[in-house]
Amino acid sequence: MGESSSSESFLKKHWEGYKEFWKERFPFTDIYSRFISREEPLPPWSESDVNDFIASDPVHGTTLKTAREATNIALAGTAIGAVSTAGIAWKYSRSLHGAGLSFVAGAVFGWTFGQEIANHYYQLYRLDTMAAQVKFIEWWENKCQKPS
């Protein structure tokens, strides 16, 4: 009996340490949790709403605009990677499932490379894009709560 209770506390102690370790490395779980676990979800926003935020917030607005431009480069990388790898797989194997898997893998690799290219081109490593996204969601939340 004594061994099982001490082993439970040993495991529990290490599990808590493990959770804290990953919590430090992935802070978005804490940052976005209040937006994700709402009782009623926020209404969808449009491109004009995003442009209103960009115009209203000189610091986080420009960061959000830059992050959105970087996303377009990553999407282009996704399309190029998916189509090119699926095309090569189809050319050499004529296998539908092989081309499909190559399409998916190429999309993932293309997104990764496109995101890295955009990260360096726009120097996103100097910006706090997560803070800009949180500020936008807070702004949108406040805008939606105000009576029109």
How would you sum up this structure in a few lines?
With 148 residues, the chain is an all-alpha fold. The chain is built from 7 helices and no strands.
Helix share, percent: over 70%
Element order: H for helix, E for strand: HHHHHHH
Task: Please report the distance between the alpha carbons of the first and last residues.
Answer: 64 Å
**Number of helical regions:** 7
Residues in β-strands, percent: under 5%
- State the major sheet: none
Rough shape? extended
In the predicted model, the low-confidence regions spanning at least 5 consecutive residues are: none
Radius of gyration: 22 Å
List keywords for this structure.
single chain, about 150 residues, mainly alpha, 7 helices, about 80% helix
Topology:
Layout lengths: L1 H24 L2 H4 L1 H4 L10 H10 L3 H34 L2 H26 L7 H17 L3
Helix pairs in contact: 4-5, 5-6, 5-7
Question: Can you walk through the features of this model?
Answer:
This protein has 148 residues and is mainly α. Helix content is 80%, strand content 0%. It has helices at 2-25, 28-31, 33-36, 47-56, 60-93, 96-121, 129-145. The mean pLDDT is 87.
